[in-house]
Model the fold of this input.
Amino acid sequence: MSAPAPTALRVGVDLVHVGEVAAAVECFGDRYVTRIYTDHEISCCRRDGVAGSGPAYAMESLAARFAAKEAVLKVLRPVDVQPAWRSIELHRMAGGWCEIRLSGPAAALADEAGVDGFAVSVSHEATLAAAVVIGWSAPPDRGEG
Amino acid sequence: MTVDETIRQVLVEHGRLAVPVESLADDTDLFGAGMTSHASVNVMLALEDAFDLEFPEKMLKKSTFESIGAIRSAVTEMTDG
Done:
């Protein structure tokens, strides 16, 4: 009896200073936000409140999403053109956990790299946000059974 | 202000480099000099403002922003094109 074929794993991790994200939002406003984050991510990070009562976005949540995108890139290892930031999404599920969803060039890059799926964990506190992403490739089908 | 002076000013304001911009040669690796991926996004947006252009997706790669010389080549390609 042979051992099962190992699943190939790739790991990416990234840290982002929340203050850097806040400074970018202050400097470039919605142009920064819409260039980097998907509509779903923006809706997750937008603060509901009275206009003028504070920042429009939860900066630590934006920072966590940027960290997740960068961690995904470390898994995908692009060698030439980097896929658009918006083609990598940290998708918050109804239950509160998050998944990685790719589209367009990022999805194509994952296909080329043979990465079949991702697991992600993000965390943040007042000044730092972090993300760890694991990409895996399913073992080849040996045609047994 | 020349193209190089503008690029260096953008790097001072947005590059978050670990070394003084004046110490950078044309081909110094900016990521090696401390620029993070997030800072490179800010540099990109600030360059767009400074030169009134928009980087196309094909130029959104690390090599476009890896040195002052590389940035100058990209900016020149877009403004001359």
In short: The helical segments of chain B are 3-14, 37-51, 68-80.
